[in-house]
Write a structure and sequence with these properties.
318 residues, alpha+beta, Beta-lactamase, 5-stranded antiparallel β-sheet, 3-stranded antiparallel β-sheet, 13 helices, binds glutamic acid, Glutaminase, acetylation, hydrolase
């Protein structure tokens, strides 16, 4: 087992960087170009708030799909588990994140889980607030508290691009309206979903979200409990089974860490009782996961003994 130090993290970054060559940068995101391909950064924050960073950890990318876990937390807070999972399932699936086929071919009453786009749109529709603006304000304020980063902001450019490229998400949403899954205003649910995707974060912000999940839902400095631990258990379970799109099984086996990735190359990892991890590596594979970031997550798990299924790590320590 290796010791967590910044020196170790720098070596881990160097070992994982070559995996970027097998991925591609998502050019739908504004201000993105091939030069981002080789970026790789990581921040780890432990339970006692020790912060370790290496590589391009200062980079900022849009949250994209990592926003799905924040939306899920708010919906659970607003309606509780039973109501939320009436609107969306909790089963993993093997299709792509923007799959439309599952909506029609399996259970038409709800999307498979909250980590695919259809599921996240259905969850966004549940988040309470009098208008889209108010609902997004709640989302952003919640994120600011979790990350203790008052300056968090939404990129208008990314938001506009999400809207402009949103045909597939619109199709998912209107299909769900046709089956009665989505009963609130479809355009409002989509608009909130697009805004949620466009919030800009760096590795520390992502790591703080992971830490929040790992340490029972308390705000970093005030220790205020923002969400009950039983909701966080639900979110981490869904991350483990569905957070890495249709590679979630692979990551459960190879890393054993509840993770959520986004097509900007971001990954949030939450190791209960131990640490939060934030990774940015913009080159992604065909499933939407950062290639170098994914390699790094697997390496960290192995070297630092983070696999949640790894009882042998505890036995070694005895
Ligand atoms: N903005 C992307 C979409 O809605 C997010 C997908 C992702 O990060 O998985 O399709």
């Amino acid at each position: 087992m290796k010791e967590l130090t910044e020196q170790y993290l720098m070596e881990a970054i160097e070992d994982s960087k070559p995996f970027a060559s097998s991925g591609n940068v998502n050019m739908n995101i504004p201000n993105t170009d091939e030069t981002l391909k080789d970026l790789l950064g990581v921040t780890i924050i432990t339970m006692d708030q020790e912060c370790y960073c290496a590589g391009d950890y200062m980079e900022c990318v849009p949250m994209q799909s990592t926003s799905k876990i924040i939306g899920l937390m708010l919906a659970l807070q607003d309606f509780g588990k039973d109501r939320v999972f009436q609107a969306v399932g909790m089963e993993p699936m093997g299709d792509f994140f923007n799959s439309i086929s599952q909506l029609e071919s399996y259970d038409t009453s709800k999307p498979f889980n909250p980590m695919i786009n259809a599921g996240a749109i259905a969850v966004a529709a549940l988040i309470k607030g009098q208008s889209v603006e108010k609902r997004f304000e709640r989302y952003l304020n919640f994120l600011k508290k979790i990350t203790s980063h008052e300056e968090l902001w939404m990129s208008e450019e990314v938001y506009e691009a999400e809207k402009a490229n949103g045909a597939r998400n619109r199709s998912l949403a209107y299909f769900m309206q046709s089956t009665g899954t989505l009963v609130t205003d479809v355009e409002e649910a989509l608009d909130l979903y697009f805004r949620m995707n466009a919030v800009m974060m760096n590795c520390e912000d992502f790591a703080r979200v992971g830490l929040f999940l790992a340490r029972g839902g308390r705000a970093p400095h005030t220790e205020e409990r923002l969400i009950p631990p039983h909701h966080l258990r639900t979110v981490k379970a869904i991350m483990m089974t569905s957070g890495m799109y249709n590679s979630s099984g692979h990551y459960a086996v190879e890393a054993g860490i509840p993770c959520k990735s986004g097509v900007s190359g971001s990954i949030i990892g939450a190791i209960p009782g131990r640490m939060g991890i934030g990774v940015i590596g913009p080159a992604i594979d065909e499933k939407g996961n950062s290639t170098a970031g994914g390699a790094l997550i697997k390496k960290l798990s192995q070297d630092l003994g983070l696999n949640m299924f790894g009882i042998e790590n505890i036995e070694k320590e005895r």
